[in-house]
Fold this protein.
Amino acid sequence: MQQEKKFDKNTLVAFILMGALLLGYFYISQPSEEELKERARLEQLAREEVESQKDTATSVQQIPVEVSDTTILIAEAKDFETENSKFKVKFAGKGGSISELILKEYSAFEENAEDHKKPLYLMNEGNNKFNLKFKDKSGREIHTSELSFSPSVKKSDSVSIVTMTAPVDGGKLDFIYTIGTNYSIGFEVKSEGIHQITNDNSIDVEWNLKASSTEKGKQQEHYWAQTYYRFKGTTDVEYELFGADKWSEKESIDWIAFKQQFFASILSFGEGFQSPVGGSNAIDEDVDPMHSKDYYFAASMPVSGSELNYKMQWDFVPLDYKLLSKNQYKGTNFDEIIPFGWGFLGWINKHFFLNIFQWIASLGMSYGWVIFLMTIVVKLVLSPIMYKQYRQSAMMRVLRPELNEINDKHKGKDNAMKRQQATMELYRKAGVNPLSGCLPALIQIPIFYALFRFFPNIIDLRGQSFLWAEDLTAYDSPITLPDWVPFMDGHLSILALSYIIAMVVYFRVSGSMDSFNQPPQEGMPDMRMMKYMMYLMPIFFFVFLNSYASGLSWYYLVSNVINIGIVMFIKNVMIDDKKIHAKIQENKAKPKKQSKWGSKMQQLMEQAQEAQKQQEQMKKRKK
């Protein structure tokens, strides 16, 4: 039990003595009247000095800029901001380049905000660095990113011309930006007196951008972000989607794009960047949650004449296929930056799925229902293929007893050729082609993969909510999971889980598993093992789709539900096993004219059978 503390007289005396000593110290150290007046005068002078410095900083800031090891210039440096209907932009006094750019019509995802939105900056807080580098006649390097620029502005109607000027060893350098009403900024580099400074026949250009993280789905943001570029004088757009985004080219390129999932920062130069190198590095979200990719680019530009005179262009564009297909961007191939897929896959997305999507979206409904109706349209287009596929599987099911009879009649490895020959003869007489059931499935594979590219890259769906999904281009996460749950990334996608359930039901209804339950034919692999693979496949699909675009999961879910309905209708209304059996018997009764291909195959099989007999006879003679 704790004891009650008693009053200590010694402690009280100690406190009194300490208080007396402090009072005495303050009395002795109190300043005189003359010292107080002098202190007040010094404080007044200090305040006047601070106010003077503020006035000077407000008008023009004087910054010493180191150009080389020994040369120091004093130049006026001042930031300048302007805007148009598409963006706000700031030009930095230090370096003269773009230091801040915000797109007005879009927002970035913010987990902690009430509406999950924040301003969308493509450039901000020093994440962009543009530099021109050359050597003076003594061999010392001059970096424009270290120079101080001062702005001057001209306005004409809706066009603003901002000139950022920096003195360079008796000459000057101008960065001239032309801002109109679109997403482009004209960019000219001009000099005066540069020939007195350098003898270089080319200058180096360097551009680094640490891209801001703007999307909810961080994995997808990393996956779809990389550098794109086009070779000069061609329409060949290059990129490295898989693996490390690191490249170098011997040929010139006329533009370089730092592509994020839905936006791109592009620098174009009609004369061509020579000996370009570039790439990007992923940024760990745990280390830097504000940025997603670190892009870099370096090349050289020729010096023609005695002065610098380059005409370039910046474009800060949303990756909207409708926008990038307009006349403004005609001939640029900027639309190729949208990763709809190569070759036929890209054609399907651009000219089939995109047109259907935009036509339905023009009706003015929610994008979730646009996807729903789009799925119905696609399924109606593919329904004849699906019918043919299911009809072939039904015919194979009807023929199963006769196939089993052939297997029983021609048992053993020695009769493998006869068994195969009899099977082919049965197919021919019945009018069944076992391969025709596989062709419709093969046709649907490109469509399946095209949609895998379509939904995460169509900007119309970005930020669009549906049901419990906040963004149809990112995963839906109504249920959070502990971090220790493997492969789930801390959430559970209900749309992805619903799709997997619908997939399993479809397997059951369509009879896709039936062929894997049949006993194996002699000499053929045991297909019953595939049944277990078919059960594992939905698990792999779920793990993948759990962090993928919820719009794709919604499409697959609706598609599978429709498939179930179509199969039930075909199975119960359109296809009758008895009628199919009667049709097969009718086909068998008709005389069949063997095709040239069938005749050739039969001849080859007979030759192989004869060769097999000769080998068996030779083995018997040796014994």
The two ends are 106 Å apart (CA to CA).
